[in-house]
Amino acid sequence: MPLLRIVQSKQNSRVKELRRALANPSREKGSLAGIEGPNLLFEAMRAGLRIPCVFASEGSEALLEKLELPADTEVLILSQDVLRSALTTETPQPIAALVEPPDWTWHDILKGRSDGMDTTDPLVLVLSGLQDPGNLGTIVRSAEAFGAHGVLSLPGTVSPWNPKAVRASAGSIFRVPVLAGKTKESIDRLRESGLKIYAATARAAQPVDLVNLGEPVALLIGNEGNGVPADLAAQADGAITIPCPGPVESLNAAVAASVLLYEASRQRLMQSGGPLIPRGGSR
Question: Which residue segment(s) compose the domain that 37 sits in?
Answer without folding.
Answer: 4-99
